[in-house]
Amino acid sequence: MTTLPTTTQKKLGLVIDLDTCVGCQACATSCKEWNTTGYSAPLSDENPYGADPHGAWLNRVHSFDIGEGDTSRTVHFPRSCLHCETPACVTVCPTGASYKRAEDGIVLVNPDTCIGCKLCSWACAYGAREYDHTDGVMKKCTLCVDRIYNDHIPQEDRIPACVRACPTGARHFGDLGDSTSDVSKLVAERGGYDLMPEMGYKPTNKYLPPRPKRDGTTAPKTVAKTEHISDPKSSIERLFAFADKVLTR
Amino acid sequence: MHPAYSVIIFTTFSGAGFGLMAVLGFEAAFGEIARHWLIGLLGLGLAAALAIAGLLSSTFHLGHPERAWRAFTQWRSSWLSREGVLAVATFIPAAILGLTWIVTARPGVIITLTGIVTALLALATVYTTGMIYQSLPTIRAWHRTIVAPIYILLALMSGVVIAHALLLTLAQGDRAMGTAAIMLLVASAIAKLTYWHQIDNAAPLATPGTATGLGQFGTIRTLEHPHTMANYVMREMGYSIGRKHAAKLRQIAVIAAFALPALLIALSLTGNGLAALAASWGAVITMMAGLFVERWLFFAEAEHVVMNYYGAKSA
Ligand code: SF4
Ligand code: SF4
Q1: DSSP state of B205
Q2: What CA–CA distance (Å, rounded) separates B90 from B119?
Q3: Could you report the predicted ipTM of this complex, rounded to two decimals?
Q4: Which residue is closest to A92 within chain B, CA to CA?
Q5: DSSP code per residue over B265-283
Q6: CATH class as words, domain A12-208
Q7: What's the CA gap between B240 and B235, in Å, rounded?
Q8: What is d(CA A160, CA A78) in angstroms, rounded to the nearest whole number?
Q9: Is residue B58 part of a domain?
Q10: Which domain covers residue B306, as residue numbers?
Q11: Residue A54 is nearest to which of B74, B229, B306, comparing CB atoms?
Q12: Which tens digits make up the pLDDT trace of B125-138?
């Protein structure tokens, strides 16, 4: 059913820390690895060893260079489905293959009913849907729906593959509809925000801004002042002065 | 947006087919053409053929055409689904209209009723086609109230231009149809010029600053894309055409789709015999060619907000 649920019991989603993300692509590769074997058909690649390879990935990590000169910074920016509350990607779907779950707010594509018309990918503002040319259906982040409720894997693995893989802990998973959850507290504390709020899609996923840069002008000088033996008197002092001169060169 | 040929053919052909259906429906209901069974047969036949060719073409770019029937189910929320439902529904009164027309060849209650219903459903179908595009909040050039009305206008225009040639061919040509065609061609040209003026001056929907939320830190430049070669998003949404080319193609579209057909129809009204006939069909052919260019531009000129992540200054 492509009409959206009016409310969802939970708002499961991700919180992504742009301060600590180092752009290592671990989340993107582990996402591809898990999802090519999991829910829906494999995430296929076209022409993988040819001159123009491309394929369906559900998570993409951009690297941006922001600002000028001393104040410029590099920000690594992972981008995947934000499991929006009011996304057009669901309502435009003519078949009902694209849907938002009332229980946890996860936005999914049913690979058995999708006709591959690609309209949902036009409606997504965030480029989160990628068409799989081999399967002829649309692919997108499932929030690892086949991990988070999976009784057959250890408790610590019941989180999205990207969150599990991130070596710097820049990705957090939880219920953003519950104001007492760890992720909600993190968002409140760090000023988490929505991407492109002007689209009106109300993304569930939140991004944490980079922390302010340390002020370079007040930082302690790293070169220590050197002291010399000023006025050598005895021969032993002259020897020390000589050794000092040689050693400090 | 990537201008896929299947979608260009879909929108132009089904627009012309349903436009012709609407014109014939109204004319059968309120005019005199219902007295001529051949107009019913050839006219509605051609309209149906164009509409079906367009609809079939739209299934070519599907990953799973065999599941296309599922697209009739989500009419509550999806304009694409509504389009499918209305397109099929239009054929029911159109078939009754055609049969009655061919068999009785006389105006009557059934022809009046089915004529009106066919015409209204056909126009509603074209409106839903326009709404598939107009309803997308992510594309500045499409998300404007002028888009769906232009789809209706261009469909009616195509329908009247084709109807004019058809009536001339069957020796039933009348001045009113030709005059209506010229008026619709002029109106469509004005509408299209207004549309281009609007999209050239429309403010971007978003910027890399709002797309990443990092605008406060300064200008955002791409250091590295997430992938070495273009991915699906860049191939589908990243198609962009240079301003120079667009300006030239707009001129070609205006000349071929509107100016030349208007001139040829005016000629067909002054001349007679074979020359008039040739001019009227010449108008149909240049118009369709012009509409292909116009529709190609409709896609190629449309920028998608997602390109804010891929180096666009804004979109
Ligand atoms: S990020 Fe895109 S695909 Fe995901 S819910 Fe929002 S609009 Fe839909
Ligand atoms: S590609 Fe599939 S999921 Fe997307 S709108 Fe079309 S049918 Fe729905």
Answers
A1: S
A2: 8
A3: 0.95
A4: B78
A5: HHHHHHS-HHHHHHHHHHH
A6: alpha beta
A7: 10
A8: 14
A9: yes
A10: 5-208+228-310
A11: B229
A12: 999 999 999 999 99
- Residue corresponding to tokens 């699906």: B232
**Ligand 2 pocket test target in A117, A121, A133 with most atoms within 8 Å of CB:** A117
Q: How far apart are the first and last CA of chain B?
A: 12
One-letter amino acid identity for B187? A
Tell the residue number behind the tokens 């610590």, with chain if given: A156
Residues 85-144 of A with CB under 8 A from B: 88, 90-97, 113-119, 121-127, 130-133, 135-137
Q: Is residue B275 part of a domain?
A: yes
CA nearest to A74 within chain B: B223
Domain count of the fold of chain B: 1
pLDDT digits (tens, 9 = 90+) for B90-108: 999 999 999 999 999 999 9
Task: Let me know if residue B68 belongs to a domain.
Answer: yes
Distance in angstroms (rounded) separating the CA atoms of residues A204 and A202: 6
Instruction: Give the model's confidence band at B146: pLDDT under 50 very low, under 70 low, under 90 confident, else very high.
Output: very high
| Closest C-alpha residue for ligand 2 atom 4 | A120
Give the pLDDT mean for A18-33: 97
Instruction: Compute, in angstroms, the gap from residue B13 CA to the centroid of ligand 2.
Output: 23
Is residue B295 in a domain?
yes
Which band of pLDDT confidence, cut at 50, 70 and 90, is reported for residue A244? confident
Domain ranges in chain A?
Answer: 12-208
Prediction pTM value: 0.91
For residue B236, give the CATH number of its domain. 1.20.1630.10
Of A66, A94, A193, the CB nearest to B80: A94
Q: Are A159 and A144 in contact (CB under 8 A)?
A: yes
Which ligand 2 atom is nearest residue A116's CA? 1
